[in-house]
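Submission checklist for the structure archive. All mandatory fields must be present; incomplete records are returned to the submitter.

[x] Identifier: Paired domain-containing protein
[x] Organism: Esox lucius
[x] Residue count: 273
[x] Sequence attached
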Amino acid sequence: MARTNQLSKEKRVAIITLTNEGQSVQKIAKTLNVSPSAVAKNIKRYNETGSHEDCPRKGRPRVTSAAEDKFIRVTSLRNRRLTAAQIRDQLNATQSSSSRHISRTTDKRRLHESGLHGQVAARKPLLRRGNKQKRFVWANKHKEWTLDQWKSVLGSDESKFEIFGSNRLVFVRRRKGEWMDSTCLVPTVKHGGGGVMVSGCFAGDTVGDLFKIEGILNQHGYHSILQRHAIPSGLRLVGPSFIFQQDNDPKHTSMFSVISHFFVKYIIPCVHS
């Protein structure tokens, strides 16, 4: 059975102080955010020993020191891809003159105590600093939008699904809430290897047409997708007032595509008014 955490000395002193003031066990437990049983046990122990110091505990003493625990934690945070065995080897290398060596199991236990658990790294497209800044500005500009406003947006993009490619899992060690932390990601880039390119769109919780792209998509092919798939999907899912959203891909921002967007924004509403 795992050892339970002891109350700090400060809380033990506070329990006895509040007890001497005549407060009940339940009230003391609520005030100090501890269990009533812990309060009762502490009062009983103090009455028997007259001391707030830790009692000797049974079991094997802790193998690592506070400095070694910090070394394990900091080493993992500096390189999230290090395994427990690699961190153990680094720690033991610093103690070459000592006969005591830390095991991999102990190293993993200390990492878990620090909230660092081995997980499969999330994959995310590689972003440069400028890309991140532009996304941050865009997010701030639209952070006050309502749900109805977002439902009027027709999002569209192309995606390539690799048929032949590496699906090797990469393990990292991360804490709760660090799933998308840059040090815990595996950057991905678009590359060859055989695959299927498709174009799709969605609005709210519904999806529009999915079109398979043959060959290399240029501005003329993109214009054809807008006319035959994106615009009809927007009219069907949202109505004539839909807002078309895309990224800054060159074929999306060419003059040919700008004319198509003018058609989406101004001509369609007039036709349906």
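[x] Structure attached
Curator remark: The longest helix spans residues 219-237. The mean pLDDT is 82.
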